[in-house]
Amino acid sequence: MGKAIAKFHGTLQTEEVEVNLADNMILLNQKRVPAKTLYWEPPVSGTIYGTLLNFKGAIEKMGGALTEPPYKAAPKAPVLYIKPANTVSGHESPIPIPAGETFLEMGASLGVVIGRRATRVTESEALDYVMGYTVVNDVSIPHESVFRPAVKYKARDGFCPIGPWVILGDEVENPDALSIRVYINNELKQDNTTANLVRSVSKLIADVSEFMTLDEGDILLVGVPENAPLAKNGDRVRIEISNVGMLENVIVHEEELMSGGDGQ
Q1: DSSP 227-261
Q2: d(CA 201, CA 223)
Q3: In the list 70, 112, 154, 263, which could disulfide-bond 252, CB 3.0-4.6 Å?
Q4: Is residue 91 within 8 Å of 247, Cβ to Cβ?
Q5: How far apart are CA 110 and CA 50, in angstroms?
Q6: What GO terms in the biological process aspect are recorded for it (predicted)?
């Protein structure tokens, strides 16, 4: 059993629980309970910062386009964007697909939860500032450009499921060696690893905190691997990150949710 922070429906605060990642069970009130039987809320409340082009494959996929206008060169610093509060949802919450869209990109990412204020921290000390790790689906409408802020495509309601929990940092021996897998309707669609990051977790924290402060509770997404799989209405999406957890959500038409459907 590993220690984690979770938030359940109807509670005001997060609480520490013990989780068994092997069978997706948690120890709650001295009883082993299947995670799928509980109602989860997002276990985080800070600002969520996404990172573009932080997987080697994503850089390679851009190819010569990075040396042409408007880029002209590969990025020399982290390329960040914000997933605002309206995007955040929890484990088993529906992901709304807007009218007129056929597919959404499932952006599997490791979320690094900051444990204390980090300003200009060194790479060697960066992990000391980590409270824990969580699974994030950085959902977006498929689009090409990474030059202009893609607010319309990445910041829609429900476009950032997080959870089910935050596994405490001490439970993860090496955040740069975690497998990331995406299943759609139980079929494996993506298999990658944080070993393929351009900037390691420590390097990313150090580079970001060099020009801006990360506060306690903030979440830094390490990036989305290349070739993010597509999902359509009715698809069940599961993202698994080794040693961290498993996040599941169903794609549901936005109109159905607005009319009172729950996507279950």
Answers
A1: SPPEE-TT-EEEEEETTTEEEEEEEEEHHHHHTT-
A2: 10
A3: 263
A4: yes
A5: 10
A6: small molecule metabolic process
Whole-angstrom Cα distance, residue 134 to residue 119? 22
CA neighbor of 217 nearest in space, from 137, 154, 130? 130
Could you tell me which of 240, 225, 229 has the C-alpha nearest to residue 56?
225
- Residue 155 in tokens: 């910041």
- One-character DSSP codes across 35-82: GGGS-EE-S--S-EEEEES-BHHHHHHHGGGGGSTTT-S--SS-EEEE
Quick check: 133 and 110 in contact, CB under 8 A?
A: yes
198 vs 179: CA distance, rounded Å: 15
Tens-place pLDDT, residues 33-77: 998 889 999 999 999 999 999 999 988 887 766 667 666 666 778
Q: What is the CATH number of domain 44-258?
A: 3.90.850.10
Residue type, 261: G
- pLDDT reported for residue 261: 57
